[in-house]
Amino acid sequence: MLLPDEQIKVILFRAGIDQKTLDDLEIFTRNARITLQEAAIEKDVITDERLGLLVASHIKFPFISLSKITIPESVFRIVPERLARKYKVIAFARDMDGIKLAMSDPADLRFQEMIIKKTGQRATPYLATERDIENTLQVYRKDLKKSFDELLQSEISKNASDIGDAPIAKIVDLLITYAYRDKASDIHIEPEEKDLLIRFRIDGILHDVLYLDKKLHDRILTRIKILSRLRTDEHLSAQDGKIRLVVDEDNLDLRVSIIPLIEGENAVLRLLSSHYRQFSLLDLGMNERDLKKVTSAIDKSNSMILSTGPTGSGKTTTIYALLKILNTREKNITTIEDPVEYKIQGVNQIQVNVKTNLTFAEGLRSILRQDPNITFVGEIRDIETAGIAVNAALTGHLVVSTLHTNDAATALPRLIDMKVEPFLVASTVSIIIAQRLVRKICESCKMQITVKRSDIEKNISKGMISKHFTMTEDITMYKGRGCKVCHFTGYLGRIGIFEVLEVTDRIRKLITEKNDSGIIAQAAIEEGMTTMLDDGLDKIKKGMTTLEEVLRVTNVGAL
Predict the structure, then answer these.
(1) Is 168 left (phi over 0), alpha (psi -120 to 50) or beta?
(2) What is the DSSP secondary-structure string of 438-471?
(3) Does residue 393 have a pLDDT over 50?
(4) Among 201, 363, 478, 522, which is disulfide-ready with 186 (CB 3.0 to 4.6 Å)?
(5) How many degrees, rounded to 5, is the angle at CA 215 between CA 214 and CA 217?
(6) Which helix (H) or strand (E) holds 352?
């Protein structure tokens, strides 16, 4: 961070931001554990570029907006990509006066001296925002196909051999590095009849990124097996393993799954980065009203908090954000997970192991003998685990867990279906968080659009539309036109849409009377619960996502 929060506060105040807004930003900063500069941009108090200009003026350095210029390829390559990412520096111009450097910290003299030594020319520092630098690195970096071809050409020409002797270790490293930089959650290595297809899952959607020669398949799979300590001579059984690497100064864990197909072994690598562990509930998109409900629930010492949704809806990330809030020295937090996705400092984490009979139920029994304050059960998936979890909540523990249900209200009858008595469900469950993940509109190519009210009414009720938008026929929304930063998809990153059901006295009564989920949901809405569709429409109005995305994940319909 270039300037401390106090100086940023002074700069914002001088720019005309009122004191109440600044006070609200400071609260947001503390809750989200981010800087005031990040908070101001996140809450749309000021644009990234305008704040960059103000900071540059304050520290008396010239400012550059990289998104508004074209950088010659030869100039961009003056600073190697690895160093550019590490030090947040880009060379953007070269003339008779020397090299012009865009820097997140233009006072860094050591880097300037390194460029002077390398080029023999003077280096002139300019301030650029970190966000602008990161987006520019995304635009100007070589695509995977080009990098792969260059790697093969250099190695094959060196060894005067064919593709079968390609440097497999470098190829696998290249795939992982590019997936990490693309913020992919998974790498799919899929053998086809004549080719080897590489796909990345980015923001929940699979993208074809590269076709390789089928000759490389066995060697790539062998390399992955070696890294994940799996049997290299086993080709007919499924295998699971784990790889730990450092990529761009970040600790990266990869969960490896290999299964045999007709065309050969198929591998999927799940990327688990320490960089992504730092999310707060606000970062994930939970509105402040729902956040208050959740923070109130986690203060209770004997209750149950449930996170629900299908696979890939972000349940684990939400739970980890909760555990981060709860994780203090005076509390003993123990988890039982399958698998342990991220290591949390100060938390005792247990990995399910069916071979040794360490199931969720057996693990939970053992945890309760370890004097825990808080217990996280990765998933309540059977009658036995449900019963032990509810009893743990009754006996003075805060139990946090996940369930596979479509919405918040359905979680309550689901527990009753697992043979938990309705009065026990009513007295232990305090809050249920249901969620989905929607893709965020790319900020680099966001544009305003007009949608006909009649088109929206095909999928969403008139009452719901009137609740969030104006009564006019033409409704203003936003979309991404597509650019290099977002791989021409119009989306970059994901955010959650939530519904948080608080178990009030009225809801408890409905549970004990064994009412179905529809009646419970209606009662919760009458008491002020925001549904996922409501939250999604609110995020559409704010220009965070699109109507198509919200309809896609809530299964309301499609335009």
Answers:
(1) alpha
(2) EEEEPTTSEEEEEEEHHHHTTTS-HHHHHHHS-S
(3) yes
(4) 201
(5) 65
(6) none
Which whole number is the average pLDDT over 366-394? 92
- The answer to the question of residue 150 being in a domain is yes
Give the number of C-alpha atoms closer than 13 A to the C-alpha of residue 147, restricted to the C-beta side.
17
Residue 138 lies inside a defined structural domain of this protein: no
pTM as predicted: 0.78
* Confidence at residue 417, expressed as pLDDT on a 0 to 100 scale: 93
**Is 39 part of any domain?**
no
DSSP for 265-276?
EEEEEEEEEGGG
3-state secondary structure of 94: strand
The answer to whether 379 touches 366, Cβ cutoff 8 Å, is no
Phi, psi of 435 (to 5 degrees): -155, 160
Q: Using H for helix, E for strand and C for coil, what is the string for 11-59? A: HHHHCCCCHHHHHHHHHHHHHHCCCHHHHHHHCCCCCHHHHHHHHHHHH
Cis-peptide, bond into residue 339, ω within 30° of zero: yes
Which is nearest to 143 in space by CA: 220, 189, 204, 81?
81
Are 183 and 293 part of one and the same domain? no
Residue type, 33: R
User: What's the CA gap between 195 and 143, in Å, rounded?
Assistant: 19
Average pLDDT over residues 159-183: 79
Please list, residue by residue across 290-320, b when 16 or more beta carbons sit within 10 angstroms of its beta carbon and e when fewer do: bbebbeebbeeeebbbbbbbeeebbbbbbbb
End of a domain among 102, 131, 160? Answer: 131
Asked if 201 contacts 188 with a C-beta cutoff of 8 angstroms, the reply is yes
Residue-wise pLDDT for 316-370, tens only, equals 889 988 888 888 888 899 999 988 877 787 899 999 988 898 999 999 999 999 9
Task: Let me know whether 265 and 177 are in one domain.
Answer: yes
The pLDDT tens digits for 220-271 are: 999 999 999 999 999 999 999 999 998 887 888 899 999 999 999 999 999 9
Q: Tokens representing 462?
A: 């008139």
- Do both 354 and 475 map to the same domain? yes
Q: Is residue 51 part of a domain?
A: no
Total domains, the chain: 3
Question: 171: domain CATH number?
Answer: 3.30.450.90
SS3 percent helix, strand, coil of the chain, rounded to 5, is 40, 25, 30
Radius of gyration of the chain (CA): 26
The 3 state secondary structure assigned to 197-236 is: EEEEEECCEEEEEEEEEHHHHHHHHHHHHHHCCCCCCCCC
